[in-house]
């Protein structure tokens, strides 16, 4: 149980392209989803917290107009990297939880490479 | 503020020998603590969690961790390492908003 599916697993695209990443909870309803960014050989950095039906809460230093988050249902959140540039290349990971103080269940991540 | 320190960036063991991954935490209240494992180019898998019940927590794949309040530690152990245990391990504490605060990670290498 508690499976989170993240798609696509890898994206390679040209600079200036917008890229959408989907995060789905397959067998539970996720009231809250999180988006993380991970640089090579580093830990995860929380980008934003997404609650179903409301606006995402972004961490300090994360551009909300650059990283658009939508959480339209209890099983789906999307992250759109708008007008991506090479410095946006990274490993993006989502997680989902049924509620506060409950374990977060992680997707397998999306490797984004901007040429 | 909550924080977590993983004392070793790399740990190397031989297959069949014990594993010890060290973690110290700082928290202004009774924390929830987790260990997650990440295999290359994958997301994170929950190994075990501590939420103020038993201080010795058993997880998946033979791992366990002991919460020691007096030492503010939550070290991860396994009696006998397998090759498949080679991965990155993260010790994690929650803050008052239930966000995860990650340690810097420990890369476990298992030698044949």
Describe the structure.
The complex is a heterodimer of chains A (115) and B (112). Chain A has 115 residues and is mainly β. Chain A has no helices and 11 strands. In chain A, the strands form 2 sheets. In chain A, strands 2, 4, 5, 6, 9, 10 and 11 form a 7-stranded mixed β-sheet that branches. Chain A has a 4-stranded antiparallel β-sheet with strand order 1-3-8-7, with no helix packed on it. Chain A starts with a strand and ends with a strand. Chain B is mainly beta and 112 residues long. Helix content of chain B is 0%, strand content 54%. Chain B is built from no helices and 12 strands. In chain B, the strands form 3 sheets. In chain B, strands 2, 5, 6, 10, 11 and 12 form a 6-stranded mixed β-sheet that branches. Chain B has a 4-stranded antiparallel β-sheet with strand order 3-9-8-7, with no helix packed on it. The model of chain B has no long low-confidence stretch (mean pLDDT 92).
Write the layout of secondary structure elements.
The complex is a heterodimer of chains A (115) and B (112).
Chain A: E1 4-7, E2 10-13, E3 19-25, E4 32-38, E5 44-51, E6 57-58, E7 67-73, E8 76-81, E9 90-97, E10 105-106, E11 110-114
Parallel strand pairs in A: 2-11
Antiparallel strand pairs in A: 1-3, 3-8, 4-5, 4-9, 5-6, 7-8, 9-10, 9-11
Chain B: E1 3-6, E2 10-14, E3 19-21, E4 23-26, E5 33-38, E6 44-50, E7 56-58, E8 64-68, E9 73-78, E10 87-94, E11 100-102, E12 106-111
Q: Tally the helices of chain A.
A: 0
First-last Cα distance of chain B:
41 Å
What is the helical fraction of chain A, as a range of percent? under 10%
Indicate the proportion of strand residues of chain A: over 45%
Which overall shape of chain A is indicated by the principal axes computed on the Cα atoms? globular
Major sheet of chain B: size, sense and barrel closure?
6 strands, mixed
Number of strands of chain A: 11
Kindly state the number of beta strands of chain B.
12
Outline the biggest β-sheet of chain A: 7 strands, mixed
Uncertain regions spanning at least 5 consecutive residues of chain B? none
How confident is the prediction overall: mean pLDDT of chain A?
Answer: 92
Instruction: Provide the structure class of chain B.
Output: mainly beta
Give me the number of helical elements of chain B: 0
């Amino acid at each position: 149980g508690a499976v989170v599916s993240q798609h696509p697993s890898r994206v390679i695209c040209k600079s200036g392209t917008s890229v959408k990443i989907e995060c789905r909870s397959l067998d539970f309803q996720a009231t809250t989803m999180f988006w993380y960014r991970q640089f090579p050989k580093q830990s995860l950095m929380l980008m934003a917290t997404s609650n179903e039906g409301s606006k995402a809460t972004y961490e300090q230093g994360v551009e909300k107009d650059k990283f658009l988050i939508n959480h339209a249902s209890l099983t789906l959140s999307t992250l759109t990297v708008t007008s991506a540039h090479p410095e946006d290349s990274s490993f993006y990971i989502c997680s989902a939880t049924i509620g506060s103080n409950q374990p977060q269940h992680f997707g397998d991540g999306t490797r984004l490479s901007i040429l | 503020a909550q924080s977590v320190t993983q004392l070793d960036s790399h740990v190397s063991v031989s297959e069949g020998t014990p594993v010890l991954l060290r973690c110290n935490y700082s928290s202004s209240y009774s924390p929830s603590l987790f260990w997650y494992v990440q295999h290359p180019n994958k997301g994170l898998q929950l190994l075990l969690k501590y939420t103020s019940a038993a201080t010795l927590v058993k997880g998946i794949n033979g791992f366990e961790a002991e919460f020691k309040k007096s030492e503010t530690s939550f070290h991860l152990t396994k009696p006998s390492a397998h090759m498949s245990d080679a991965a990155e391990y993260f010790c994690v504490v929650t803050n008052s908003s239930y966000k995860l605060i990650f340690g810097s990670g420990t890369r476990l290498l298992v030698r044949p």
